[in-house]
Amino acid sequence: MGISNAATWLNRGRETAVLTAVILATCGPAVAQCRDDQVELRGPNGTARFTVEVADDDAERSRGLMFRDSMARSAGMLFIYDTPRRASFWMRNTLIPLDMIFADATGRVTRVHSNAIPRDETPIDGGTDVLYVLEINGGLAKRLGIAEGADLRHPAIDAGLAVWPCESAP
Predict the structure, then answer these.
(1) Count of the separate structural domains present in the chain
(2) pTM of the predicted protein model
C-alpha cells in the first residue's frame, strides 16, 4: 500500500495528517533493521510504527502508563514477559483510555482490547500464551485497522520464531 492509499484509507479529516505520520508504506523489504524504542505492526490495511517505552521487569510492568494524563498519538508502551502467560490488565490509576494489543512469542496479534476505560479495575483478559502487550491510545487500533492476526515486530522477538523478523545486526 502506498502512502497515497494510506491517506485514503485513513480519511479521518484533520486526524489524517497526524495518523499518516504513523503509517508507513508496506513496499519495503520483508526483513528490516529494528530499534528497541519502536514497534511496527502490519496487517491488511498497511503498516504502523509506534515509538515505545519498554516495560520488561516487574516494577516497570506494574507501573505501566499509570498517572499519565496524555500520550503522543504515535507513542505507546511495550510490555515484554520472560515466558508466555495468561495476561490480564486493569486500568487502576491509568488516566487515559488505551487499546491493548496482545501478541504471542512469534509476534502474531492474538487479541485486541479497544478503549480500556480509565481508572476501571475490571480485569482485561489478554488470553493465554501472551509474551508481548502493546498499549497505545484508545481507539487508535480500530482507526488503523490493527486486529487479531496482525504481525508485531520488535527486536525482543526471537528472529527464529518471528512471523515478521528484524534484520540481524551485522
Answers:
(1) 1
(2) 0.82
